[in-house]
Description:
- By secondary structure, this protein is an alpha/beta fold.
- The protein is 45% helix and 14% strand.
- Strands 7-5-6-4-1-2-3-8 form an eight-stranded mixed sheet, with helices on both faces.
Amino acid sequence: xxxxxxxxxxxxxxxxxxxxxxxxxxxxxxxxxxxxxxxxxxxxxxxxxxxxxxxxxxxxxxxxxxxxxxxxxxxxxxxxxxxxxxxxxxxxxxxxxxxxxxxxxxxxxxxxxxxxxxxxxxxxxxxxxxxxxxxxxxxxxxxxxxxxxxxxxxxxxxxxxxxxxxxxxxxxxxxxxxxxxxxxxxxxxxxxxxxxxxxxxxxxxxxxxxxxxxxxxxxxxxxxxxxxxxxxxxxxxxxxxxxxxxxxxxxxxxxxxxxxxxxxxxxxxxxxxxxxxxxxxxxxxxxxxxxxxxxxxxxxxxxxxxxxxxxxxxxxxxxxxxxxxxx
Length: 327
């Protein structure tokens, strides 16, 4: 749905991967909310090489609704590159990024738009709570704690990136040319005027979540690197193994002290193992920095499209841009 002059007030970008149970319902819900709150809108679905019927359903949606557009990636580019690429393809004066599984409630679209019209350039939803396993909850808390303590900018716990971004924000971040964009962090780092909207995250509507421990680990490390560059990350899991070995060594040292055993050899081994873990950790972080510098020098696109549907003929294609930067 566009205005008479062809301008689009709001773009809603929905990344998909094996969402055959949700894609039609989320488009219907998003369209209903958008029609209530804006004059014109588009919905952009970007598929990360789904293996179920998601792409077929996306084709049907595009055939029935001209305001729904689709991008099919030629492979799975992970949970950072593909959603961010979709956002950079949007043309709306404001852009909303959200998941396809209803864990990001479409009912918040009106509140986002209201905050944007009031002057906020970024409106971020902040999850109050979430049902998850104790292990995933611990990983999230540790991650937020480390980022909050050592990050270059403030971290917003519970903010997944679900929210609204002004056109100026999107264009600015696209020009940063990040090869593996941590978009939710980039939003905070940009320093634009921000409004935070707490919400209670509902259960996933259907299907299975893709955010298991392995996915979160990959996400935290900015996706998989090339086969050669992956060796730069090897010190990090080795550091974790060494750190895990420190615990039984420390327990053994205390036990030896209590029973009058050989304390000093065990204490020396414990300290040496701990120092080894710390050194490996910093080597891994240095390797990650080197990897990111190498990625920036390659100037590769975030994704390579296999096909796109329902985009206007005048809309610039990725081949016409350096990465995804706008002219």
